[in-house]
Specification:
CATH class of the largest domain: Alpha Beta
Largest sheet: 6 strands, mixed
Number of strands: 13
Distance between the termini: 109 Å
CATH architecture of the largest domain: 3-Layer(aba) Sandwich
CATH topology of the largest domain: Rossmann fold
Number of helices: 25
Shape: flat
Strand order of the largest sheet: 5-4-3-6-7-12
Strand content: 5-15%
Length: about 600
């Protein structure tokens, strides 16, 4: 019981030091407030019907007892009754706060930049040109609205995602800088394909599309205009508004490699914007459209429109890493109920007072002992876990992963992490096993989750984090030999990474491995010489390959002096150096004779 009391005090401290409002897992629980309102109306109507039975002349006498009881006590009892219902429904809604040491991180609506990549973006009616201005606008918007998940898509005749929705603004700047070099020569782009693709992106749910376009009239001509309208309707069905910015101001020439772009008849091609059609597409989705003006004003206008977007719901994976404070709301509700019963029944009824005290103590204590876990269907939970573990033992890891992810609790997160580990999906395994560590209620399951978390961190290359995980295991059980061995392995990998690869092991060459081997310019000459030696051809005499034929080698005074100078430079180890020199054929025997003094010349 002492552990539960400490946990309750920690929850009060967490709530007192919270920097943000709690997140409600089940906000639909507040619909239960309709019940007390209905009961109050029914009771009031029932009391009115009883009052009408009293004779008008006797009403002052009949209502005298009610007035003597006091109006304040009645209102106080009603207030306590309302307080009980409010906090009881709040407990059912399961409010949660971030764990200590974590940032709450309010979820923000994602944004996908859809950029026109056709030749119409090469117009120079704006500085530096249309596509260059689009890149500058994205960079300014990232500075004006930091921390928002962003993605990037380019389209011309087809649409392609350059950057999936990511919270890293540096990635957006990296890919945006590549857009000027990707501008094509196609005149009529296909924005319908880009907008239809954005409507199918699950990562964009609850977000918006920032459409940066040239507004060229060719994009909306004939049947193409109907296709764009259809794609915009799909975005509207998904609740994704389009915030359009037209980079063109007037008709402008098109360029390619610094030269005007011409058609087959050598006529200079131009691009004429059609602002009305762009505004029509944006208005169909509930968004906005504007022509480019001052870049800073364009970025501020887009940032304001994005700030007005509602925050998307918090994902389930984030809720699992948060601490429930529903038990605190239940304690307040039970206290309010007990006080309400005290005022309703009066202090003279001991039996009913005892019931109020029992309600104030037993119910919150039971709920605290249960750690305020949400009420779930236990049968469904057990069935999902049994099916998932059966699939895991059978080696059907994909089916097991699906089963574990549909369940909740420590066993589900542990099984999901182990399954992802078997599937070599180490980042997902790390996420699930970390959740299992947080959900563990005792030392034994926490050690199991920490040990497997350390193994996953090692295979993911995060050796320092793996050492920390194994250290946590050893703190719980100093005699855990597998954790000790794995910790030593992770520490050795850290040292190996710090010292670099060994000399006898090839290091990673990166892009050098993709380069062709250098050409050997003498290979052809050597092949020719070998061919002549083997065939005996050529205009000159051919030397024999035999070492015994031909004129014998003679050691003159110059070669001997050179050999002696080399010997004089050798210090401490003359014998191996002499041996190496004597192994040089064909004058090995001659040098041995001269050095030994046997040569008579």
């Amino acid at each position: 019981m002492g552990g539960h009391v400490d946990s309750l005090i920690e929850l009060w401290g967490l709530l007192a030091n919270a920097e943000s409002w709690p997140v409600l897992v089940r906000p639909e629980a507040f619909a239960l407030l309709v019940l007390p309102v209905g009961l109050a109306l029914w009771q009031r109507r029932r009391q009115a019907r009883l009052d009408r039975y009293a004779d008008p002349s006797l009403r002052p006498w009949a209502f005298a007892e009610g007035r003597s009881a006091g109006v304040r006590a009645g209102w106080l009892a009603r207030g306590l009754w309302l307080l009980f219902w409010l906090f009881a429904t709040l407990a059912l809604a399961d409010p949660r706060l971030p764990q200590p040491g974590e940032t709450g991180g309010e979820a923000r609506a994602p944004v996908l930049f859809v950029v026109d990549g056709s030749a119409a973006m090469t117009g120079r009616d704006v500085e530096p040109d249309r596509i260059g201005r689009a890149v500058l606008l994205m960079e300014l918007l990232a500075e004006a609205d930091p921390g928002r998940p962003v993605g990037l898509m380019r389209y011309a005749d087809t649409a392609g995602v350059l950057l999936p929705v990511s919270p890293d603004p540096d990635l957006l700047g990296f890919y945006a800088d590549e857009l000027p070099g990707l501008t094509g020569t196609r005149l009529a782009a296909r924005p319908d394909r880009a907008l239809a693709l954005a409507a199918r992106m699950q990562a964009l749910a609850g977000g918006a599309v920032v459409w940066i376009t040239s507004g060229d009239a060719r994009q909306f001509a004939g049947e193409q205009g109907s296709r764009v309208l259809t794609a915009a309707e799909r975005l509207d069905e998904q609740g994704i508004p389009v915030l359009a910015v037209t980079m063109a101001r007037e008709t402008a020439r098109l360029y390619r490699d610094g030269q005007p772009l011409r058609d087959d008849d050598h006529n200079v091609l131009t691009s004429t914007p059609q602002f009305e059609r762009v505004a029509e597409i944006a208005g169909l989705t509930g968004g906005m459209a504007r022509r480019t003006g001052i870049l800073r004003e364009d970025a501020d206008a887009l940032a304001g429109a994005l700030a007005a977007l509602p925050a998307p719901p918090v994902p389930e994976s984030a809720l699992e890493r948060q601490q429930s404070v529903a038990v605190l709301a239940l304690w307040v509700a039970m206290v309010a109920l007990a006080l309400h019963l005290w005022f309703e029944w009066g202090p003279s009824v001991r039996r009913k007072n005892g019931l109020a005290v029992a309600l104030i103590l037993i119910t919150p204590l039971l709920f605290t002992a249960a750690h305020a876990e949400p009420v779930v269907d236990a049968d469904t939970q057990d069935t999902l876990l049994k099916e998932a573990w059966a699939a895991f033992e059978a080696g059907e890891f994909a089916r097991a992963q699906s089963g574990f992810d549909r369940a909740s609790g420590y066993d589900a997160r542990l099984g999901s992490g182990l399954t992802a580990y078997r599937r070599a999906d180490y980042p997902h395994a790390i996420e699930r096993l970390q959740a299992a560590v947080w959900l563990a209620e005792a030392a034994e399951p926490r050690m199991l989750a920490l040990f497997n978390l350390g193994n996953a961190l090692v295979l993911a290359g995060r050796y320092r984090a793996a050492v920390s995980a194994f250290d946590a295991v050893l703190l719980l059980d100093p005699e855990h030999d597998p954790a000790e061995r794995n910790r030593q392995l992770a520490a050795s990998l850290i040292e190996a990474a710090r010292e670099g690869p060994a000399e006898d092991q090839p290091g990673f060459r990166g892009f050098d491995s993709m380069q062709p081997d250098p050409l050997d310019e003498t290979r052809g000459a050597r092949m020719s010489e070998e061919f002549l030696e083997s065939q005996g051809g050529g205009s000159g005499p051919v030397a024999s390959g035999s070492a015994d034929s031909g004129e014998a080698f003679r050691l003159n005074e110059g070669l001997l002096q050179g050999a002696r100078k080399k010997l004089e430079r050798i210090e401490d180890r003359p014998q191996p150096a002499i041996e190496g020199l004597l192994r040089q054929q064909p004058y090995k025997a001659v040098v041995e004779q001269r050095l030994s003094g046997e040569d008579g010349s």
